[in-house]
Amino acid sequence: MADFTTGHPAVIERLRLLFRHIGYNLRGGFLIRPVLIALALGCGGALLSEMEESNPWIGDWVPRVLFFSHGDPGVAQVILSDIATSTMTVVSIVFAILLMTLTLASMQFSPRIIVSFARDRVTQWTLGIFLGTFLYCMVVLPATHTVPHPFAPVVTVMGAILLAIACVGLLLFFIHHISQAIGVNHIVDRIASETEAAIDDVMPRPRRQIHLETSDWAEARTWRTPLVSNVSGYIRFIDLKQLRSLAISWHVKVHLVRRVGQFVPEGTPLLLVNKPERLSPEAAEAFRAAFDFGPTRTLQQDVEFGVLQIVDIALKAISPAVNDPTTAIGCIDQLSRILIRFVSREPPEPFLYDLRGVARVSVPWIDFAHLVDSAFEQIRMYSRGDVAVSLRLLRALGDIAVTTEDPLFRKLLLDRGRQVLDGCSERLGAEEMKPLLVRFSALEGLAALESSSRR
Asked: How far apart are CA 409 and CA 262, in angstroms?
């Protein structure tokens, strides 16, 4: 216990979460990677010019055909200043147009897709290289001087010219990439891929055919001692190892009240604790520090967030103002892809145990039923009069049912299919219902096949 009371564990845990958040942004944020690229190119220009001034013979490697004024620093200054000015001009214009495009796309599809665009690697590298070229030229400019003796860093200036040429090619590729990236199919596919990656991270093991029955830890319902949150925000990440270690160290059991992705207002219960008298104020703060809160949801551990982004696009598409069922159908296809990946994976462990096999931490995770409802329920309600979208919903449910042998999952999918059918029957005629009945019969056959195999 002393290991956790000394050394300010809450501060240490907050630093660990901060470093993890920085690492997450480094992999997908819009700020860190461009800044690091720009700093790397700037430092490279400074080191190269310093090396060239210390070793003037390096400049002799550059043929005079490529750089004929080896001894004129004025030419080098003009080249560097022109490259720096033109680079920043292009960055200002192109990224102003990009922000306008993102604004229009967020209005047409969903404001949540801005997160997906911010994680785009091509955009990050383009911004980083353009800013790095500007910083490279600005750092090298002071190295070109006329007093006490004329000096032109020939090799360094050639590096700036090569960077400028690379920026021209990168600009053309960036425009081509953005013209494709703002297409709804590319947006939805990228969100689905990121969601699958989140599923693989949270649920790394393939699904087993035999599942061990675990207790629902009913005793947690009788606990009356909450550990309240001291901040407001969405739970973006939970350090499960730290929670388990703290619970073992203080000989307590804790139950997480809300799961990843849910909002926790300040002053509301975050954990339920048995035997809370064992916790010191420092220990309680250490438990709180194992949670990372933020104003928006992320895909670090929140699989449902990716699903909701695609659902938002589908709902916009089938709204009367847009009336684009083709986009909604594409969204349903990608949602079925995510759910197929979900059912193929072993669910996360709901309990964390100590070495003696005692459950110390109870963790709620989203289950298959809730994820199916998050994916299809709103689309089903808004598409009751649309035959094409409802047909694709039934096909998606059938595709998911084919990939799982779990009878409970197939029964749940059959029930959702029946809801689609019942909702459409209220608005569609007998002729329009025929293809829906055919597709529902196929889904019903899968459930019947499973029931007969069990008998």
From this structure: 24
Q: In whole numbers, what is the pLDDT of the chain averaged over residues?
A: 83
For 252-285, b where at least 16 C-beta lie within 10 A, e where not — what string?
bbbbbbbbbbeebeeeebbbbbeebeebeeebbb
Sign of the dihedral through C-alpha 98, 184, 29, 375: positive
Sequence-distant (≥ 6) Cβ neighbours of residue 72 within 8 angstroms: 150, 152
Backbone angles phi, psi at 290, to 5 degrees: -75, -5
- Phi, psi for 254 (deg, rounded to 5): -130, 150
Task: Specify whether the CB–CB gap between 154 and 52 falls below 8 A.
Answer: yes
Q: How do residues 218-247 score in pLDDT, each as one tens digit?
A: 565 556 688 999 999 999 999 888 899 999
Q: How many CB atoms lie within 10 A of CB 114?
A: 16
Q: Is 261 left (phi over 0), alpha (psi -120 to 50) or beta?
A: left
Burial per residue of 195-231, b for 16 or more beta-carbon CB atoms within 10 angstroms, e otherwise: bbebbeebbeeeeeeeeeeeeeeeebeebeeebebee
Please state the φ and ψ torsions of residue 238, each to the nearest 5 degrees. Answer: -120, 125
Query: What letters, b where the CB count within 10 A reaches 16 and e where it falls short, cover 71-94?
Result: eebebbbebbeebbebbbebbeeb
Burial (0-12, 13-18, 19+ Cβ within 10 Å), 298: buried
Kindly report the pTM of this predicted structure. Answer: 0.79
Q: In what order do the strands lie in the sheet with 233-238?
A: 263-264, 233-238, 291-294
C-alpha closest to that of 378 among 300, 430, 297, 304: 304
Please state, as a whole number, how many other Cβ atoms lie within 10 Å of the Cβ of residue 137: 29
Q: CB–CB of 347/367 below 8 Å?
A: yes
Question: How far apart (Å, rounded) are the C-alpha atoms in residues 426 and 32?
Answer: 52
Determine contact, residues 338/199, Cβ cutoff 8 Å.
yes
